[in-house]
Design a protein that fits this description.
Layout lengths: L8 H14 L3 H16 L6 H8 L14 H17 L2
Helix pairs in contact: 1-2
């Protein structure tokens, strides 16, 4: 599928210079940039443990052992964010 976008001349110059240095086409660089941009800004699905907990209707206050382990969910999310940051 084709896409037409407007970029300012200075940005096109930078794009062309990078593409030439990387020995890639302009389109290839733009595809990679958009993919990376979306990957780094897309919210991942809820962790399975939290999704299960959120899907169960709560008619009264759940017992303490019914709550997900929010600390491990937070730690896993932080690790994923750190890993994403290292891959860019």
């Amino acid at each position: 599928m084709n896409l037409s976008i407007h970029l300012p001349d200075p940005l096109i110059e930078k794009l062309d210079a990078y593409a030439a240095t990387a020995e890639k086409s302009r389109s290839s660089v733009v595809r990679e940039a958009v993919s990376e941009y979306l990957l780094n800004r897309t919210v991942a699905a809820w962790p399975a443990e939290l999704a299960r907990w959120m899907s169960v209707p709560c008619e009264s206050e759940p017992s303490a052992d019914a709550w997900p382990n929010f600390d491990s969910i937070r730690d896993e999310a932080n690790a994923n964010m750190t890993q994403r940051g290292a891959s860019t």
